[in-house]
Amino acid sequence: MLHTLAVLVENHPGVLTRVAGLFARRAYNIESLSVCQTEDPGISRMTIVVDGDDQVIEQVSKQLHKLVVVHKVTDLTGEAIVDRELALIRVKVNNETRLEVLQTVDVFRGRVVDMGRTNITVELTGDGEKIDAFVRTVRPYGLMELVRTGKIAITRSDN
Amino acid sequence: MTGAEVLLKALEDEGVELIFGYPGGVLLALYDALLDSKIRHIGVRHEQGAVHAADAYARAGNRVGVCLGTSGPGATNLVTGIANAYMDSVPIVVLTGQVSTGLLGSDSFQEADITGITMPITKHSYLVRDPRELPRIVKEAFYIAASGRPGPVLIDLPKDVLAARDVVAAPAVPKLKSYKVFGKGNAGQIEETAKAIAQSQRPVLYAGGGVINSGAQTALKELVEATSLPVVTTLMGIGSLPAGHPNLLGMVGMHGTVTANYAVDDCDLLIAVGVRFDDRVTSGLGHKFATKAKIVHIDVDPAEIGKVVRTHIPLVGDAKLVLEDLMSLVQKQDKPEWWNQLRQWQKDYPLRYDTDRLTPQMVIEKIGKIAGEDAILCTDVGQHQMWAAQFYPVARPRHFITSGGLGTMGFGLPASVGAQIAQPDKTVFLVTGDGSLQMTIQELATIIQHKLPIKIALMNNGVLGMVRQWQKMFYDERFSQIQLHANPDFIKVAEAYGLKGIRVTDVSQVEGALTEARDYRGPVLVEFMISPDEDVLPMVPPGKEITEMLGR
Q1: How far is B17 from chain A (nearest CA, A)?
Q2: A21 with B306: Cβ contact below 8 A
Q3: ipTM score of the complex?
Q4: Residue in B265, B288, B109, B116 with CA at minimum distance from that of residue B202
Q5: Are residues A21 and A50 in the same domain?
Q6: Can you tell me the distance from the alpha carbon of B193 to that of A10, in angstroms, rounded to the nearest whole number?
Q7: Which residues of B are catalytic?
Q8: pTM
């Protein structure tokens, strides 16, 4: 099962290597990872999606906690959260398909950020499933390039 | 002050009296400053010797060991020893030279990314970029190395950081916001454990290196005596209860005693203290280990709890504090039926060896008698190590020094250097083999240079005995690459370095040779010519449950 971990770490060079190295040497599988500075410039937040059963996830969190640079590990799985990914997708179009593709983009509430004679580039945000669904829908037209960020997540304010 | 002087001052402030090291190009400023420092430098013959010596110095002396190597090959030569200290949770601070900050990452001469290389085998590491931060970094490094579950911390020191002049050092104020150390255990869980002890018919206490690290031996002894708890130990836990104590059943696991293994398999309550259910104990079969038991796991490292076996009562905390709290809650009890069973197993399945010829087991037992309770025994890795674990009567914690988790051949000789320097007034014996000794044999010169009266008992069987035993038992005696045909004359080697050499070829010479070695004022190498056919028994074959021992 996929778990989403929010990991607060020190914002130093080398911290990413420590975290990534831990996953590699203990054979935990990272599905996605995104890192950025938080409201406190000394602290970075990593959102890590990792595959494993409860026992594996417990080990992952405990091992992460042991790193001196890790401040806090929270498993967001099962919590009320808002999560988002951003994708940039270039789709092949011609005179016949252009309109259909643009309609699809509209349905998914994407935005066209670039347009050429033979292709358009779409920006899409949402959870992973929404992006998967969009990709499935436009693939038959010709998927030229796909860039996705990892997942980022935040708990809902009621918690 | 120069960066090097700031560093040495910071080390002095941490109480460092000596460093095991080896000089090199980027360390010139530091070695120059050392000439004017109170800190002693113990020069070795290879950096691996320095790190193993610092490791054993930490174990025998119960303090943080420090070693030093230059950049590049100096640093990479330390890697095995760092891994060794990491696996056995030994507090050492490893100082490495590094190329100047301006050259970092440019593949310059003698450059190696040592913080990167050692990331999986250090508790923490630092690459110092600003000499003003040295006091804080040193303070943090010593604190991290020694607190909680101890381990190695590495500080990488670029040449320009050491050579910097007019350094105005920042105060040594640690910035460890997120580093947490566990002390007392949860009161509710301790109460539950006390109840479990009272209800249990067949309890066992399984003691490991954590008992030694936390200094829990007295608490352990009081608890097991009050509650009649039988004790099995891991290799690292040897010394947590004195040899010959009636509650001690011996070592558990692959080469454990039959009684210890049967007891763990049959118990209804297993109290694991400072252990990690290593595969040399469980055969890698966590799900088949102590299956009839309720398992209590006491450990200072929360990540160890639930890692291998399912734990019923997890107890995160310092072993000594938890056992003391537990002691205040238990009632005196004896478990006569359980003890009858245990005594019967002990009678039926004693550890044994042939007495009519020169056997390593007998030699090791004799060393114990002749060296006395106050002596420190260091071992190398292999058959002789397991015989030492089985037959050497270890009376105290920190008096049995061995490479447990990593199993590093070559650990023994430099370890004996560190142990002797930590405890200059004690007799230090090293039990080693002809394979292990030759991995770090150059440290014989260190022994002579620093006038260390170490007594080396070399078990020479002309082969890599443990590998040979496995080839004999599990590969149809197809012996592959285990013969050490070109071994030197070890007596001549010893004498060439300046040690006294004694060769023992017959059982009748053992006592005389060992007494002579003990009473001789300098270092001695006693070579025992033993048979390559001697096996370490009993033995749990790989992948089998711990009750399926060969040689019962």
Answers
A1: 27
A2: no
A3: 0.86
A4: B265
A5: yes
A6: 38
A7: 47, 109-110, 159, 466
A8: 0.95
